[in-house]
């Protein structure tokens, strides 16, 4: 599970709201770890606290208590979460723990018995109750009004839009359904209304996230309510009418995903699919309890590209899964050669407490996992470099993320923030500001990044 990058981690960057508090106002700090879905949870918690009269502290010393929103997907993520809890205890002393690792309260209190409370993922009311117990609210009805917009932990020009919680899949390496439960989709009209408010507040890019985006609405039987149908194709069409970039993440490769591609070809949503293929060998996929149809997936990819030639495909893979042979791994490399995915990441398999994969036979030695990871990433890097080189000379739209004295850091439609690459402008950038969408000519390409000029 990817971590928040240093530039956006709330314990480093903090909320993008003014650090202004009245005398005697109770103040809360926030450390948010894990994936963007956890970041959305943190934003919701802080928004509720702001509405109740709490101030948000940009540092440990200024907070009456600190909330640590944890990740518990992998052992490495658990270790980072425990480290963040320990740091908050040292720097502040009054710590409330929530998030995915909160599903294992004994694990947390065993390492840090002095935490004030432990709650599980998306238990907003329980977190608020814990905050009330640790730092009672002192609302001033003449000062503390509900904020016009929610607290944001990302730059003002883009925002994550979570459309569902949980997952119905039973992948053997994953414990997300155990931590976050089965699929629960938000009503489509509520998602669209939130998106409208974000765009009204200046957001130029909506990043649609969930655990399984393409399953959105399945639990609601794709019901229509208040003029909006709870189906990913309809939702994408509705969001695409708002005038912002719409980027789809975590799209499981169901057959109906092909219905999204015409929306990309028409410019309604960005031509970008983030699909977790995980592997390519049918036997490995069966041991993962995932669909074992890599050959048909290649046919689907070809069909998507025939409809929308500019589509960007991003995926993640697991190397060194229990039982993975050298022949199975070579099949993955060969598949990657054929698929020519634009953006690729990989994880070395780790045991996760409670995952069924732990009990599989023939675990791969660490040195072999590392070797396969290195070989996989070398091939993925070569593919990325070649595909980016083909963009030199093209005129493309980019969104500006940051401007400093040296240049402007931008992203193309093919790049998700803090996950994919960047496009850099180092001449004539002085008038640009974050959130601008401009047209550039690509001058140079590297392994993962581009350089261009206005």
UniProtKB/TrEMBL annotation:
<dbReference type="InterPro" id="IPR007197">
    <property type="entry name" value="rSAM"/>
</dbReference>
<dbReference type="InterPro" id="IPR002792">
    <property type="entry name" value="TRAM_dom"/>
</dbReference>
<keyword id="KW-0004">4Fe-4S</keyword>
<feature type="domain" description="MTTase N-terminal">
    <location>
        <begin position="26"/>
        <end position="136"/>
    </location>
</feature>
<dbReference type="Pfam" id="PF04055">
    <property type="entry name" value="Radical_SAM"/>
</dbReference>
<keyword id="KW-0963">Cytoplasm</keyword>
<feature type="binding site">
    <location>
        <position position="174"/>
    </location>
    <ligand>
        <name>[4Fe-4S] cluster 2</name>
    </ligand>
</feature>
<keyword id="KW-0687">Ribonucleoprotein</keyword>
<comment type="similarity">
    <text>Belongs to the methylthiotransferase family. RimO subfamily.</text>
</comment>
<feature type="binding site">
    <location>
        <position position="71"/>
    </location>
    <ligand>
        <name>[4Fe-4S] cluster 1</name>
    </ligand>
</feature>
<dbReference type="InterPro" id="IPR005839">
    <property type="entry name" value="Methylthiotransferase"/>
</dbReference>
<dbReference type="GO" id="GO:0103039">
    <property type="term" value="F:protein methylthiotransferase activity"/>
</dbReference>
<dbReference type="InterPro" id="IPR013848">
    <property type="entry name" value="Methylthiotransferase_N"/>
</dbReference>
<keyword id="KW-0689">Ribosomal protein</keyword>
<feature type="domain" description="Radical SAM core">
    <location>
        <begin position="153"/>
        <end position="386"/>
    </location>
</feature>
<keyword id="KW-0808">Transferase</keyword>
<dbReference type="GO" id="GO:0005840">
    <property type="term" value="C:ribosome"/>
</dbReference>
<dbReference type="Pfam" id="PF00919">
    <property type="entry name" value="UPF0004"/>
</dbReference>
<dbReference type="InterPro" id="IPR006638">
    <property type="entry name" value="Elp3/MiaA/NifB-like_rSAM"/>
</dbReference>
<keyword id="KW-0408">Iron</keyword>
<feature type="binding site">
    <location>
        <position position="171"/>
    </location>
    <ligand>
        <name>[4Fe-4S] cluster 2</name>
    </ligand>
</feature>
<protein>
    <recommendedName>
        <fullName>Ribosomal protein uS12 methylthiotransferase RimO</fullName>
        <ecNumber>2.8.4.4</ecNumber>
    </recommendedName>
</protein>
<keyword id="KW-0411">Iron-sulfur</keyword>
<feature type="domain" description="TRAM">
    <location>
        <begin position="389"/>
        <end position="454"/>
    </location>
</feature>
<keyword id="KW-0949">S-adenosyl-L-methionine</keyword>
<feature type="binding site">
    <location>
        <position position="35"/>
    </location>
    <ligand>
        <name>[4Fe-4S] cluster 1</name>
    </ligand>
</feature>
<keyword id="KW-0479">Metal-binding</keyword>
<comment type="function">
    <text>Catalyzes the methylthiolation of an aspartic acid residue of ribosomal protein uS12.</text>
</comment>
<dbReference type="Pfam" id="PF18693">
    <property type="entry name" value="TRAM_2"/>
</dbReference>
<dbReference type="InterPro" id="IPR005840">
    <property type="entry name" value="Ribosomal_uS12_MeSTrfase_RimO"/>
</dbReference>
<feature type="binding site">
    <location>
        <position position="167"/>
    </location>
    <ligand>
        <name>[4Fe-4S] cluster 2</name>
    </ligand>
</feature>
<feature type="binding site">
    <location>
        <position position="100"/>
    </location>
    <ligand>
        <name>[4Fe-4S] cluster 1</name>
    </ligand>
</feature>
């Amino acid at each position: 599970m990817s971590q928040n990058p240093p530039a956006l981690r709330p314990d480093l960057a903090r909320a993008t709201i003014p650090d202004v508090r009245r005398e005697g106002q109770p103040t809360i700090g926030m450390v948010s770890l894990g994936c963007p879905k956890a970041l959305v949870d943190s934003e919701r918690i802080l928004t509720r606290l702001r509405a109740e009269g709490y101030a948000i502290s940009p540092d440990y010393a200024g907070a009456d208590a600190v909330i640590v929103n944890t990740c518990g997907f992998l052992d490495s993520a658990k270790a980072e979460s425990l480290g963040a809890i320990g740091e908050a205890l040292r720097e502040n002393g009054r710590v409330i723990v929530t998030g995915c690792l909160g599903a294992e309260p004994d694990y947390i209190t065993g390492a840090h018995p002095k935490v004030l409370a432990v709650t599980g993922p998306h238990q907003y009311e329980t977190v608020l109750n814990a905050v009330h117990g640790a730092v009672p609210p002192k609302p001033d009805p003449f000062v503390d009004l509900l904020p016009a917009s929610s607290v944001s932990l990302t730059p003002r020009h883009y925002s994550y839009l979570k459309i569902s919680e949980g997952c119905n899949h039973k992948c053997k390496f994953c414990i997300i359904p155990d931590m976050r439960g089965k699929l629960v989709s938000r009503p489509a009209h509520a998602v669209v209304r939130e998106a409208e408010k974000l765009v009204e507040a200046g957001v130029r890019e909506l990043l649609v996230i969930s655990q399984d985006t393409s399953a959105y609405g399945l639990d609601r039987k794709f019901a229509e309510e208040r003029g909006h149908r709870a189906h990913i194709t309809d939702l994408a069409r509705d969001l695409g009418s708002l005038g912002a970039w719409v980027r789809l993440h975590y799209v499981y490769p169901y057959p109906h995903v092909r219905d999204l591609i015409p929306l990309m070809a028409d410019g309604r949503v960005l031509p970008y699919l983030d699909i977790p293929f995980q592997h390519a060998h049918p036997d490995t996929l069966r041991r993962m309890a995932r669909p074992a149809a890599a050959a048909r997936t290649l046919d689907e990819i070809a069909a998507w590209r025939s409809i929308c030639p500019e589509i960007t495909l991003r995926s993640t893979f697991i190397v060194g899964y229990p039982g993975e042979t050298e022949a199975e791994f070579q099949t993955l490399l060969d598949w990657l050669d054929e698929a020519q995915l634009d953006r690729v990441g990989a994880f070395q398999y780790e045991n996760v407490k409670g995952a069924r994969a732990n009990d599989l036979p023939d675990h791969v030695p660490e040195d072999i996992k590392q070797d396969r990871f290195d070989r996989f990433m070398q091939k993925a890097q070569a593919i990325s470099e070649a595909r980016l080189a083909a963009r030199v000379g093209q005129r493309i739209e980019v969104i500006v993320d940051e401007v400093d004295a040296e240049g402007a850091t931008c992203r193309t439609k093919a790049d998700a923030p803090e996950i994919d690459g960047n496009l850099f402008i180092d001449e004539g950038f002085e008038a640009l500001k974050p959130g601008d969408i401009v047209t550039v000519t690509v001058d140079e390409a590297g392994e993962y990044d581009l350089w261009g000029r206005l």
